[in-house]
Amino acid sequence: MTTQMIIRLDQRQREELNRLSRAEGKATSQVVRELIDNFIKERDISGYIDGLWARIGNTLSDKGYTSKDVQRFVRESRKAAK
Predict the structure, then answer these.
(1) Which of 18, 33, 36, 52 is at 20 to 30 A from 44, Cα to Cα?
(2) Distances (CA, A) of 1 to 4, 37, 81
(3) What is the C-alpha to C-alpha distance for residues 15 and 32, in angstroms, rounded to an integer?
(4) pTM (global) more than 0.85
């Protein structure tokens, strides 16, 4: 489901946005949605953290570590931190 949002642009911004959108063959609203999606992706730390955990998991798997090894590493690390 989509909703509408009203934003205020000065005349120059609107003209440039329309011109650049047309140059890419896209509707202005599509360009704005893409900009908002990129803004959210760049600032959403949860996506970064998920990607980080995925990379760590892949690296550990590639090196032959199992989930039991990871649990052991966590226990040892927590014990050493006390």
Answers:
(1) 18
(2) 10, 16, 48
(3) 14
(4) no
**Are the C-beta atoms of 47 and 41 separated by less than 8 Å?**
yes
List, for residues 5-41, the tens digit of each pLDDT value: 999 999 999 999 999 999 999 999 999 999 999 999 8
> Phi, psi at residue 64, to the nearest 5°?
90, 10
- By the 10 Å C-beta count (0-12 exposed, 13-18 middle, 19+ buried), 21 is classed as middle
Rounded CA-CA distance 18/41 in Å is 24
Provide the sign of the torsion angle of the four alpha carbons 25, 28, 33, 36, taken in this order: positive
Q: Where are the domains of the chain?
A: 11-43, 46-81
